[in-house]
Automatic annotation (TrEMBL):
This is IS21 family transposase. The keyword DNA damage does not apply. It holds the Pfam family rve. Residues 369-392 are annotated as: Disordered. InterPro entries: HTH_IS21_transposase_type, Integrase_cat-core, RNaseH-like_sf, RNaseH_sf. GO terms for molecular function: DNA binding. It comes from Lentibacillus salicampi. Belongs to the transposase IS21/IS408/IS1162 family. Residues 369-378 have a biased composition (Basic and acidic residues). Keywords: DNA recombination, DNA-binding, Transposition.
Length: 419
């Protein structure tokens, strides 16, 4: 990966490490090796840089430093003096050199970003470590959603952070609040973000579909800036320092029952340190501002599967199905609409749809629009043989009577006897 991607991974690992995640859990979440996860919790990967070119300012830097020591940092003055000494460069280079030597301004407090009632919620995961749970030692995770205005929290515990689990937690949170905020803020979790570059953010198709279904906007934090979602970060610390310090039966169901009771009697009942008001009390001001969830049919967590594209085909239930011909299309995702219908998606768009073919004699399902037309390719939509759709037609053969071959045989016999 390039430096930009390594830096992105570094800040995401730093966020998880600050939350108390173990190196093993970080490696599993970020899909990197254990040594890489360990290294990125300690230091930023080095950027490969080219040797610096010589600057027109180089011969004058010693003079500039002496003038700075004397107390002169005004670039207009320095620029005039350097020109008298023969400097032919621009003032911009001079400013860039002098700026680090100027006295830095005092550090200012970061203003707290507040949102209106019902405008935003913040979401995060926390790693609770390996716990004795339901008769065996298992890693346990906590899902937390915090309403930004009221600070009302929702908490539930799971055994994994997979997409299906994540979406079910989101639905449970919306039902707990009785509505849907207009925006939800996430960090760069892999269930939400497919790819993030400086000028483009691509959401996973599954979560993009979920957000569209419930009508909320997805906001994302800048990597390495956890204060962007400080409200839910504080909730994570609160859960770790309060709920996890209490005794609970070693069962996932018991933990979730205790979590609902804790939210009711402690987390959302006691006054918040920032607002001075209990989250439940302040939530009354924003409950009516949430988008209604009543009447919305619960979102069905769709089953998604990955498939490798091999020679323009993917394998589904022992049959081959064609996909659009693209050199860059190496892998697709399958979205099952029901048990007999599936959609084929690239990294962000739907590219085709099929109904599962039940003909036992057919092993290849081919659509002509998916591959370039080649002479001899049938015009029908599907083929029944497990052969390439590019088989050429046999050449036309002249039809002759049997008398032609009898005469030919006699001529060959006469020719042999005359020799």
């Amino acid at each position: 990966m390039n430096y930009e991607m390594r830096e992105e991974v570094f800040w995401m690992i730093q966020d998880l490490h600050k939350k108390g995640w173990s190196i093993t859990a970080i490696a599993e979440e970020m899909q990197v090796s254990w040594p890489t996860a360990k290294k990125y919790t300690e230091e930023l990967p080095e950027k490969q840089t080219r040797p610096k070119r010589k600057s027109k300012l180089d011969p004058y830097k010693d003079y500039i430093k002496r003038r700075i020591e004397e107390g002169t940092t005004n670039c207009e003055v320095l620029f005039d003096e350097l020109q008298e000494k023969g400097y032919t460069g621009r003032k911009t280079i001079l400013k860039d050199f002098v700026t680090p030597f100027r006295k830095a301004p005092g550090k200012q407090g970061i203003p707290r970003y507040e949102t209106g009632p019902g405008e935003q919620a913040q979401v995060d995961w926390m790693d609770c470590g390996i716990r004795e749970m339901d008769g065996s030692r298992k890693r346990t995770y906590g899902f937390i959603m915090t309403m930004s205005y009221s600070r009302k929290r929702f908490l539930c515990f799971t055994r994994n952070m997979k997409m299906n689990t994540f979406l079910r937690c989101m639905v449970q949170a919306f039902e707990y609040y009785g509505g849907i905020p207009r925006k939800v803020l996430f960090d760069n979790m892999k269930t939400v973000v497919q790819q993030r570059l400086k000028k483009e953010i691509i959401l996973t198709s599954e979560f993009n579909d979920f957000a569209f279904y419930y009508g909320f906007r997805v906001d994302l934090c800048q990597p390495g800036k956890p204060r962007t979602k400080g409200k839910v970060e504080n909730s994570v610390k609160y859960v770790r320092n309060n709920f996890l310090q209490r005794k609970h039966e070693p069962s996932l169901d018991a933990w979730n029952e205790d979590a609902l009771a804790w939210l009711l009697t402690v987390a959302n009942y006691k006054p918040n340190q920032t607002t001075g008001v209990a989250p439940d009390e302040r939530f009354k001001e924003e409950q009516d501002k949430l988008q209604p969830i009543t009447g919305i049919k619960p979102y069905t967590v769709t089953k998604w599967e990955k498939r490798v594209v091999n020679d323009g085909y993917i394998s589904i239930k022992s049959k081959k199905y064609s996909v659009p011909s693209r050199p860059s299309l190496k892998e697709v995702r399958i979205r099952w609409i029901d048990r007999d219908t599936f959609e084929v998606w690239d990294h962000k768009d739907k590219i085709t749809e099929y109904v599962v073919d039940i003909n036992p004699d057919k092993t290849v399902v081919y659509r002509p629009e998916h591959l370039p037309k080649i002479k001899g390719t049938p015009d029908e939509g599907d083929m029944g043989l497990a052969t390439s759709p590019h088989v050429q037609k046999a050449p036309d053969v002249e039809v002759r009577s049997l008398d032609y071959y009898e005469n030919l045989k006699e001529e060959e016999s006469d020719y042999a006897s005359n020799r």
